[in-house]
Design brief:
Blueprint (H helix, E strand, L loop, with lengths): L1 E2 L6 E6 L2 E6 L8 E3 L6 H12 L19 H8 L3 H5 L2 H15 L21 H12 L3 H21 L28 H10 L5 H11 L4 H6 L5 E7 L5 E10 L4 H4 L3 E5 L2 H7 L23 H12 L8 H14 L4 H8 L4 H43 L1
Antiparallel strand pairs: 1-2, 2-3, 3-4, 5-6, 6-7
Length: 394
């Protein structure tokens, strides 16, 4: 018995020198004879009907939009009804929906009409999934990684939620997509920061946005939404037992608000941020960051505005608002702040990103220590040579 790589569920056998094809959904289903050979019009039509369950034996799932039982399309519909999906924020849902829809519309074979939407999940194997991911990997590694994650969500439905396949039959187990560390949104060097500050004086929207991004380490959405009502004054007992009156921004991050309400943040206002906020009009309340007309910026507009402001300062493209958040993390690591404290200050949900900041800062410290050791060693050698020369002269 031979299987055809482009027709999941189809297999052939040779009788008296002639090849016959059949379709079988699973080992418990009955066989359906397929006329002709793969590629023939009659074969294609019959195979399509068999896959779609139009044999009189298949059940039609009563869900918005017709889907085939136990298919990837069925898994996608089921995924959207799970509590795990509801926990994702809208941006994450949208990203995954787009990737899943792209996968569902992929043909099983470019020359045939069957797409993965109508294929039962159990027909996916590691070789087929690897071919899909490698095809994307050739043009965009990041998209390939995200696509694998999206498909894994459908497989999770099939394994954990609906029990269509067993965990050991997960075709994604052996597939890993590793991407190089991103060079996008780099931290702003001191020279770049000074150039920006020189061009945009305190009191301008450009400088306010920069100050909030750097000295609070906020994400774009939090910067846009931050309000004067979020600025509080509290008496805090410090670790040494003394009391301090602290002005700070207290708010909930936008990220993961659907999942757990967003991380609660308390970020003291440092002196340089206070200086940047001092000339701003607080009497009308509302958002801290406003445009020239006194209106708040939308979250999406800040990306383009920061590019505009950096170009005004003759700064090369690539230094972004999110880059200022990384600058804050790098700055804290260079101040020798403990990793756990950096994680809390930036609102990270894990130590993964925080450890990167600490690791980079330590690499620089180690490099400087090595340079100092080399200079000290060479200075000692030079001193020994000078002493030897003096002894010879005497």
């Amino acid at each position: 018995m031979a299987k055809h790589p482009d027709y999941p569920g189809a297999s052939s056998r040779v009788v008296n020198g002639k090849e016959y094809w059949r379709f079988r959904a699973n080992r418990h289903a009955r066989q359906i004879a397929l006329p002709g050979q793969p590629g023939d019009e009659a074969f294609e039509a019959c195979y399509r009907r068999a896959v779609e369950g139009c044999t009189g034996k298949s059940e039609i799932i009563d869900m918005p939009g017709r889907v085939l039982p136990r298919s990837f399309g069925h898994a996608a519909r089921r995924l959207e009804s799970t509590m795990e999906w509801a926990d994702f924020d809208p941006a994450t849902q949208a990203k995954n929906s787009n990737l899943i829809e792209r996968f569902l519309n992929m043909p099983v074979d470019p020359e045939h009409v069957v797409t993965w939407r109508d294929v039962p999940v159990e027909y996916m194997d590691a070789d087929r999934l690897r071919t899909i991911i490698e095809g994307i990997f050739k043009t965009n590694r990041t998209v390939a990684k995200h696509m694998l994650v999206a498909v894994k969500k459908l497989l999770w439905v099939a394994i954990e939620v609906e029990k269509w396949i067993k965990p050991q039959d997960d075709p994604s187990l052996s597939i890993r997509v590793r991407i190089p560390k991103s060079t996008k949104n780099p931290a702003w060097p001191i020279a770049i920061r000074e150039k920006y500050e020189e061009r945009h004086p305190i009191g301008t929207p450009a400088r306010t946005c920069y100050a909030l991004g750097f000295w609070l380490g906020n994400r774009r959405g939090d910067i846009a939404d931050l309000e004067w009502d979020d600025l509080v004054t509290e008496e805090i007992e410090l670790f040494d037992g003394s009391l301090a009156l602290i002005e700070a921004f207290a708010f909930r991050q936008k990220k993961n608000r659907n999942r757990h309400g967003g991380r609660e943040m308390f970020i003291p206002v440092v002196d340089k941020l206070a200086a940047a906020l001092d000339p701003l009009d607080r009497s009308k309340g509302g958002t801290v960051l406003k445009n020239g007309y006194g209106n708040p910026f939308s979250e999406k507009s800040l990306t383009g505005m920061m590019q505009h402001w950096t170009r005004q300062a003759d700064i090369p493209d690539g230094y972004t608002l999110h880059g200022l958040r990384r600058t804050f993390g790098t700055y804290l690591a260079e101040c020798n702040i403990q990793a756990r404290a950096i994680m809390e200050a930036m609102g990270h949900s894990s130590m993964t990103v925080t450890d990167n900041y600490v690791r980079e800062a330590n690499k620089k410290r180690i490099a400087v220590d090595i340079a100092i050791a080399i200079n000290q060693r060479e200075e000692k050698r030079d001193q020994m040579k000078r002493r030897a020369t003096l002894r010879v002269v005497r």
